[in-house]
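Sharing a chain and its predicted structure for anyone who wants a worked example. Both blocks are below, sequence first, tokens second.
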Amino acid sequence: MKLASERAVVVFTLSSCCMCHTVTQLMADLGVNALVHELDSDPKGKEMERALLKMIGGRGPAVPAIFIRGRLVGGTNKVMSLHLAGELVPMLKNAGALWL
């Protein structure tokens, strides 16, 4: 949780995950300077991945896990749904991740 609160937007990923790349690219395209934390590059990555899996309810992949303002928003499906519904950008603005 400490890592998830370090910036307005934090994305936990695995370097080999194509959905992780999609979400981080979306954030970059929107102009968000997200902190991207690749779990497979961290010695405690497996432990962190298990903790993320618990946080999301134990179903589905643990990554990507997107936190906005320290709160778990969800994974790819949730973030893309928010974006398509026009709700992601206002959420990012409220978190101070976007200045537009």
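Comments welcome. The helical segments are 18-30, 45-55, 76-84, 88-94.
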